[in-house]
């Protein structure tokens, strides 16, 4: 086998620690600048346009875009597990949820449902409760913050026989290693345009219906940028007209792995750690197919309270919490990320980056990192993760 | 010029100990303030244990660390991590 073939199968980048990773860039004399938390590398013009789009949509962009269309040279070899494919089948929400549950039930025996109390995780737990014949295979992991966010739902869950409920707070998340896979509500935000309350507050709720070209032009009038966006948006297979549609496409195509990857910290210390043990429920074909022809229904009336209304109604139909469905809005449920960071630090499972086969790139004395210690461990073995500019 | 890493490590250790003292003091203050709340008391004692564990881990790492770059002896990242260790939501 040639060395080129070997590199094709080499594990790719899944997640990196920004502070340590920036040191690597400096040692490799890579010319970059930070756009908030995003790394803009010189010479990757098209990729840098993706960063520019992110900066238009968010005042504090975080998490590097990963191009699922695989048409853009990226500065780093990110793993893309699910390249973009234009959906050919259309599903209703309940069909999509059922299909996803069946998909996961068919591949794993023990399924941990990470319930934060938010809309996406409540909907995924609801879907499993409806479609899993044997609920003893399910374990709901929650924290006190899940209870604060949706107290009635915990009481509702307690009514199900054979459903294991575990409060992960205190010593539990630090000391226990749960078996099975872990399903989170990740991908829900991105597939539904990552509508951001501060974006609506800044630009007004009607911004979502504006033509994206007018809006983009006001933010970043470079002609080549607008031309790039036209080309890139056409890869969606839809005619992208509004800001809402542009947001849907960008977050679905470029950002579905960003929030998910932050939760890997929780599991890096597990004996059989592999990134695939953490499953973003909504980052899947059925859900993508459901939303594809219904983008305009993501937030009826441009009311933030109506964002994800169908998902909330899906829950209420099963649990009866109509008031919750009507009034619940997005809360940034970052408890698992917080637990994960602390656990990773105290277990001394720090990393510079995590690769797609579960390899943790690390040195003995992290968080202290030097080129001398890095070269001692890796020399140039990781150079394949860094692409040359086109 | 050869870098005197011993001096840099001593200085980093001093700064780290300063931060650990501050963190420990803050947790002990909480123990007094919330003395009648058994849940908070339990949590703060757990956090004190975790802080000691973190402190030992970091001091060992500083001792073993090897670098030829003065910028690598920065306290910033330790401070950042310490924030997670004593985060009262975790």
What do these coordinates show?
The complex is a heterodimer of chains A (390) and B (90). In chain A, 43% of the residues lie in helices and 9% in strands. With 390 residues, chain A is of the alpha/beta class. Chain A has a domain of 182 residues: HUPs (Rossmann fold), CATH 3.40.50.620. Chain B is mainly α and 90 residues long. Chain B has one domain. Chain B has three helices and no strands. In chain B, helix 1 runs antiparallel to helix 2. The longest helix of chain B is centred in the N-terminal third of the chain and has 29 residues. The chains are: A alpha/beta (390), B mainly alpha (90). The interface between A and B is medium-sized, with 23 and 26 residues.
Helix content of chain B: over 70%
Helix fraction of chain A, binned, reads: 40-55%
Topology order of chain B in helix (H) and strand (E) letters = HHH
**What name is given to the CATH topology of the domain at 93-192 and 257-338 in chain A?**
Rossmann fold
Tell me the greatest interface.
Answer: A-B, 23 and 26 residues
Number of E-type strands of chain A: 10
CATH architecture of the domain at 93-192 and 257-338 in chain A: 3-Layer(aba) Sandwich
Number of domains of chain B: 1
The secondary-structure element order of chain A is: HEHEEHHEHEHHEHEHHHHHHEHHHHEEH
User: In DSSP terms, counting alpha (H) and pi (I) runs of 4 or more, how many helices of chain A?
Assistant: 19
Instruction: Calculate Rg of chain B over CA atoms.
Output: 16 Å
The tally of beta strands of chain B, per DSSP, is 0
Q: Give the terminus-to-terminus CA distance of chain A.
A: 26 Å
**Residue-averaged pLDDT of chain A:** 94
Defining key terms:
heterodimer, A: 390 residues, alpha/beta, Rossmann fold, 3-stranded antiparallel beta sheet, 10 strands, 43% helix, globular, B: 90 residues, 73% helix
